[in-house]
Amino acid sequence: MPVLQSSSLAVGTVVCVEGSSFVSAFSNVPEFSVDEHAAFHMEDTNPQDVTGGTPSPAVPVRSMFQIDSIALRMILRTSWGHAIRAD
Fold this sequence. Notes:
By secondary structure, the chain is mainly β. The protein contains no helices and six strands. The mean pLDDT is 81.
């Protein structure tokens, strides 16, 4: 059986999915939003929470205002479920 890993599950959690009963659905209309005041944590190898402190442990953090940019976010709604078989 194929084994897939996920960083989204707690350590020690095992999930089994019977592939032919798994279903998913996506919205056909993505939602877009723009913001020129959003803040981003620019660290991609070991990001920390953006919190207070001197210096903040979450460096570098940049706002779109600081770097004269606009942030674009796209949300594509999705859902997952399983089909129930009556044997």
